[in-house]
Amino acid sequence: MISLNFLSNPISIAALLLLISISVSQIIARKLRAKKYHPIAGTVFHQLLNFHRLHHYMTDLAGKYKTYRLLGPFRDEVYTSNPENVEYILKTHFENFGKGEYNHKILKDLLGDGIFTVDGEKWRQQRKVSSYEFSTKVLRDYSSAIFRKTAVKLAGIVSEAAISNKVIDIQGLLMKSALDSILQVSFGIDIEDSIQGSDEEITKFSTAFDTSSSMTLWRYVDVFWPIKKALNIGSEGTLKKNMSIVDEYIYKLIHNALGQRDKLGNNTAVRKENIVSRFLQAENSDATFLRDIILSFVIAGKDTTAITLAWFVYMLCKHPEVQERVAREIKDVTNVEDSTTSAEFAGSLTEEALEKMQFLTAAINETLRLYPPVPVDAKICLSDDTLPDGFSVRKGDMVAYQPYAMGRMKFIWGEDADQFRPDRWLNGDGILQPQSPFKFTAFQAGPRICLGKEFAYRQMKILSSISLRFFIFKMSDDNKIVMYKPMINLLIDGGLQVYAIPRPPY
């Protein structure tokens, strides 16, 4: 038994505390040794230093380690390109990897409590309603008609540029076309002049939205963003300024949508043609709720398809033999006269015709493999876990899979992983061969798999078919280095400047 004299002696107490401290440290060390943690590849500050080439930097690390950690002041960040880990995160142990409070705080100013920022009941509610809408034939037919209409409008603008031999920013035109489509499909709002660029309001909104997306991504590498937000300086000042423009426009759309709902009254048959009308029927459809829904659909329906098509055109310019092969398939499948107008040709793009365009789909898939519109997707580990590779992750760690890096991994795609080769998607008979969604992660997988996947393919194939049936695309400067802009989505920095040449008859 320890005597009172011992306890009253400061030196003895210090010695006892030291022994206890050593014992506790040894116990903790043994527990830590019992778990393996992924190799440390750097810190989050290295991401900051490499932000201008962020996805190149992360691809380099993925080439050294299938899964690695970056150390941060508040949590580790784990990045994986291992398909087994991806399946575990997105499907097998889905409930343990959510958006979490960390992602929610970063994304909230831009996307609020929309489907891409929340977990639990809020996510399930929005997912359920959205899933119902995307499954209806009415919406499929309605959206296809709109995609054809906007594609014809785009072809008209490209035709004018082709006749005058004028350089066009095809990414900018695709972004306007996609925004025009998504506003009509999702909200029943027809902005007739948006694609011509004559509507300053929508141009201002698009620019502000893109800037806000870039500033939001910056938060992932800037640990000082909460301080900047409190002081309204730097990147956070820029974000606040641009979000005020975004919100002003979106709330205007909401006001108009609510007015249309009140006019329609009980005429639900008309309202069900667009997606947001169903949310408008909900009792809790207040302005903030609708704002978050709308911006989620905008970022999903505008940016992803337009960005993919911009990279697709870039790949076709770099690989003219692929461009000709796609155009030949479109011509053979539709079998229409060379004198057909773009509007008449659009009518031939039925579901059956689009389904037969196997090489076009393969070329789009190959573009998505190398240039996924969402290059990194981050989750939060909600409790201590061990991934299939045998390494552990801690509660609170950010765990992200990397579609951009995965598309370039030789252990996944073979020695030619960095090459654009659409035939990798086809069998010997030219039939499309689907790949595992945990290997080809452009549309996520598991419970959060993209609801608009088939809509996206339909829109991209319609736009591609009309454009490539009538035009040949070439880079305005073959020596220009095309680079992405660090954003939530993989936007081409500075746009894509191309010439469009009228396609001669076959």
UniProtKB/TrEMBL annotation:
<keyword id="KW-0472">Membrane</keyword>
<dbReference type="GO" id="GO:0016705">
    <property type="term" value="F:oxidoreductase activity, acting on paired donors, with incorporation or reduction of molecular oxygen"/>
</dbReference>
<keyword id="KW-0560">Oxidoreductase</keyword>
<dbReference type="Pfam" id="PF00067">
    <property type="entry name" value="p450"/>
</dbReference>
<comment type="similarity">
    <text>Belongs to the cytochrome P450 family.</text>
</comment>
<dbReference type="GO" id="GO:0004497">
    <property type="term" value="F:monooxygenase activity"/>
</dbReference>
<keyword id="KW-0349">Heme</keyword>
<feature type="binding site" description="axial binding residue">
    <location>
        <position position="450"/>
    </location>
    <ligand>
        <name>heme</name>
    </ligand>
</feature>
<protein>
    <submittedName>
        <fullName>Cytochrome P450 704C1-like</fullName>
    </submittedName>
</protein>
<dbReference type="GO" id="GO:0020037">
    <property type="term" value="F:heme binding"/>
</dbReference>
<keyword id="KW-0503">Monooxygenase</keyword>
<dbReference type="InterPro" id="IPR036396">
    <property type="entry name" value="Cyt_P450_sf"/>
</dbReference>
<dbReference type="GO" id="GO:0005506">
    <property type="term" value="F:iron ion binding"/>
</dbReference>
<feature type="transmembrane region" description="Helical">
    <location>
        <begin position="6"/>
        <end position="29"/>
    </location>
</feature>
<keyword id="KW-0812">Transmembrane</keyword>
<keyword id="KW-1133">Transmembrane helix</keyword>
<dbReference type="InterPro" id="IPR001128">
    <property type="entry name" value="Cyt_P450"/>
</dbReference>
<keyword id="KW-0479">Metal-binding</keyword>
<dbReference type="InterPro" id="IPR002401">
    <property type="entry name" value="Cyt_P450_E_grp-I"/>
</dbReference>
<keyword id="KW-0408">Iron</keyword>
